[in-house]
From TrEMBL:
Site (Important for activity): 37
Gene3D superfamilies, A to Z: Glutamyl-tRNA reductase, N-terminal domain, NAD(P)-binding Rossmann-like Domain
Keyword Oxidoreductase attached: yes
Protein's name according to its UniProt entry: Glutamyl-tRNA reductase
Enzyme class: oxidoreductase
Alphabetical UniProt keywords: Chlorophyll biosynthesis, NADP, Oxidoreductase, Porphyrin biosynthesis
Pathway: Porphyrin-containing compound metabolism; protoporphyrin-IX biosynthesis; 5-aminolevulinate from L-glutamyl-tRNA(Glu): step 1/2
Domain Quinate/shikimate 5-dehydrogenase/glutamyl-tRNA reductase, first and last residues per copy: 114-251
Amino acid sequence: MQTYFDTNIFVWQFSGVPVTELCQHRFLLYNQDATQHLFEVAAGLDSLVLGEGQILAQVKQVVKNGQGVPGFGRKISELFKRAITTGKRVRTETNISSGSVSVSSAAVELALLKLPEYSSSTARVLIVGAGKMGKLVIRHLVAKGCKKMVVVNRTADRVAAIREELMDADIVYKPFSELLACAAQSDVIFTCTASKAPLFIKESVQALPSVNSEDGCRRLFIDISVPRNVEPSVAELEGAGVYNVDDLKEVVEANKEDRLRKKMEAETIIAEEVKQFEALKDSLETVPTIKKLRAYAERIRSAEVDKCLSKMGDDIPQNKKKAIYDLSLGIVNKLLHGPMQHLKCDGAENRTLSEILENMHALNRIFGLDTEMSVLEEKVRAKIEQNQKQSS
C-alpha cells in the first residue's frame, strides 16, 4: 500500500496506480514516513499555525467519510483512529493549543483579561469594522462566550453575512454615523478598519461618559488596525486603556515560542505512538496464520464431537450435547491461547518481528497450514537493512 498526502487532502492509492496521475502539488510518503506525517498533522505540528485545533476535526471527518469506501480497510481505519488518539494526547499532555498566536485572538484574550469586572457574557462589546480582522475578532469573542455585541460598519451587508454564519450570537449592526454613541455605551471597543485617519481622538473619548467611575473601571480600546484607529494620546486619559498591534505582537511572539518548546514534547509522544502503531500494523500480517490455525483446530474439534455423539446414540438430552460442545470448545480455546499470543506483535510483549516470523514458520510447519510468508519476510529484511544502515 502507498499513502499520498498533501496539505489538506489524503488520497490513498494502491499498487498499480501510476504516481503520475497525482497532482504535482502532492507528495508521496511510504509506510512509517506516512504514519509519522499523519500523526504530526493530527497533532497540529504540520499546520500553518503550530498547534492548530481545527485540523484534528478535519482528520475525524476523513474517517467519517471513509467508512464503507473501497480501499478504506482495516489498516487505513486503524491508522486514522490512532492518529486521532495521538492528536488528542498531544493536546492534553502538552497543552500546545493554549495561548493566542494571532493578533485577533490575542486581542480578545487581552480584553477579557483587562476587564475582570465583567464576564464574557456581560461585557458591552463594540467592534468597529466588519472586514477580515473584524470577522475574526467576532468569531473569537463568540468562542469565548460573548454572544452579544454591536458592530459598526460602513455597510450592513458584511454584518448580515457574519450574523448568518454565527446564528447563536446576537450581533447588532450600526452605521458609522452612530460610532461615538455606540462607544459611549461600550466597555471594550475593538477597532479594525482601514481608515487612514484616527476614529477616536483624545477630545472625543474624553467627552464620553465614564464606564464606572465608582469602581475606577476604564473603557478599553483594542486597536488592531494599521494605521491606528485610536489616537495614541487617548492613553493619557484616566478613563481609557489603549492597546495596539505592537502590544499584541509581543504576546503572540511569546506564545509562539512557548508552542515551539511544547512541540519537542509532542514529537516524543508522536514517536511513541508511531512505534505502537507500527507494532499493531505488523501484527495484522499474522491474521491469515491465526485464521488458518483456528480453522484447523475447529475442523478437528467439530469432527471429534460428532464422532463422540454418534457413539453415544440418538437419545442424548440436549443439555448434555451442549455440555460436550462447550467442553470441546473450552479445551481448543485454551490450547490455542499460547500459540495465538506468540503470533501477536501489538506492543504488549517484547517480541521482535523476527521472533513472530519464526513462530509463524514453526506453526506452518507443525500444522501444515501453507501460510504465505513472503510479505512478512520482505518486511523483516527491509527493517534489518534499515537498522544496519543507521548503525553504520
